[in-house]
Amino acid sequence: KAGVTQTPRYLIKTRGQQVTLSCSPISGHRSVSWYQQTPGQGLQFLFEYFSETQRNKGNFPGRFSGRQFSNSRSEMNVSTLELGDSALYLCASSFTAGTGNEQFFGPGTRLTVL
Amino acid sequence: AQSVTQLDSHVSVSEGTPVLLRCNYSSSYSPSLFWYVQHPNKGLQLLLKYTSAATLVKGINGFEAEFKKSETSFHLTKPSAHMSDAAEYFCVVQAGGTSYGKLTFGQGTILTVHP
């Protein structure tokens, strides 16, 4: 079974631009979560989607948004990019939402904002 | 609210000696607890998970962890370190309730293994 895939793997953008990252979960998984990883803040939760509905959201500004499609694929969007948005963005999928469910992580998209 | 504290940012051991990575957690609900490993330039891999069954949890590659509710700890151990164990390890809590499936990560412990 294929793992979680994320595209693109690397992105370079300039301040003020917007970016869209894509995540394809493991086949059969219906929950997708997004995390931001930076050297200073570590791994932080962005949001979780299940059956096309956002179930939970982390403490990030409204510039960060996401959505999930009927095939469980998910996208996240960051508008008006800032230098501090440079990070590794990780997507994770699980069979269902809620506690106790293993989340399987993709390789991440490394975003650099210049 | 939920939080995780990994007590050591760096741990250095010699190959063949035991590994101990320490983790304390805080949670308003009965938590699920996980350990993930991240090798350089690689994604996160699940080592093991605790979800209110047996308190001693065995994972992959010889790792295990013991859930101690009275101490709010979930330390990761391995009897004998291997060079391939060198990586960053994350203790993770998933608390449920209004947090739903949200994972809260510790700051990570970098494990160095010397020959």
Question: Secondary structure elements and their pairing?
Answer:
The complex is a heterodimer of chains A (114) and B (115).
Chain A: E1 5-7, E2 10-13, E3 19-24, E4 31-38, E5 42-50, E6 53-57, E7 64-68, E8 74-78, E9 87-94, E10 104-105, E11 109-113
Parallel strand pairs in A: 2-11
Antiparallel strand pairs in A: 1-3, 3-8, 4-5, 4-9, 5-6, 7-8, 9-10, 9-11
Chain B: E1 2-6, E2 10-14, E3 19-21, E4 23-27, E5 32-38, E6 44-50, E7 56-58, E8 64-68, E9 73-78, E10 87-94, E11 104-105, E12 109-114
Parallel strand pairs in B: 2-12
Antiparallel strand pairs in B: 1-4, 3-9, 5-6, 5-10, 7-8, 8-9, 10-11, 10-12
Which structural traits does this protein have?
heterodimer, A: 114 residues, mainly beta, 7-stranded mixed beta sheet, 4-stranded antiparallel beta sheet, 11 strands, globular, B: 115 residues, 6-stranded mixed beta sheet, 0% helix, 54% strand
Portion of residues within helices of chain B:
under 10%
* Count of DSSP-assigned helices of chain A: 0
Largest interface: A-B, 28 and 28 residues
Q: What string, H for helix and E for strand, traces the elements of chain B in order?
A: EEEEEEEEEEEE
| Structure class of chain B | mainly beta
- Give the uncertain stretches of chain B in residue-range form: none
Name the shape of chain A in a single word.
globular
Using only C-alpha atoms, the radius of gyration of chain B works out to: 14 Å
The quaternary structure here is: heterodimer
